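2024-03-11 09:14:02 DEBUG pipeline.ingest accepted 1 chain
2024-03-11 09:14:02 DEBUG pipeline.ingest length=244
2024-03-11 09:14:03 DEBUG pipeline.predict start
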Amino acid sequence: MPPADLDALAADIAGVVRSTAAATGEALTPPDVRAWTFDVLSGPDFRALVSACYTWWKEAWSSEVQTLAGFSQKHRGTLRDFTTTVNSLRTSHQHNRDLNATAFAHASAWTVKACGTASPAELSEWRACGDKFGDEIAAATAALAAAAAAVAADPALAKQWASLTAARKSVDLVATADVVMEDLRRSYSPSQLEYMRRQIEGQWKRRRVTAADDAQAALEAVVEKVVIGAALTPLECGGFGKVE
């Protein structure tokens, strides 16, 4: 990414931080995009860029992205399309193809469009993937900044945004998880607890909480889903024979 484009990206991110603080009082932590690997020369370089973007867009700022996409009809398509892309690319890098067919299909189609093949191998192909992804990061961030500025400038929407942020902050993820696990008579090792709490935090950030929701009840539903899912064990299918 050229220096001027990187400067513009950083400026758009700073704009979202300012608009969020003005409307909600929330202090977002901006990603250090200048440390990202935009000069993609290989598969590991591309995976590093996707991973850095995913950690920011789908984890750290997921609530803001989702909320602003909901408020801004003008920018909703750009924000949601990019969310799908970064999620699919990251999934295709991290998980087994058979379990993520939809993500792999989207990622493969994106890669073909970026460099002409679903399986890039040459330096020029990886560079093309990096360039396209960088362009999409810039476009999505510009849309996010514009949506944030528009919502912050609208008194009614700014009030709704502040209410949603306050609702999310009004609950205690760790305490709620501990209470639900105790109610369900479940206990886990420290490493299992750390993993489950990351799952709870991620799903809670992606949960669509509205001003009419009971935030505590919504969080408890998320925790129950994660805890019950972790308690399930694979079904025994030995009696059915081997499936070819």
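2024-03-11 09:14:41 DEBUG pipeline.report Confidence is low (pLDDT under 50) at residues 233-244.
2024-03-11 09:14:41 DEBUG pipeline.predict end
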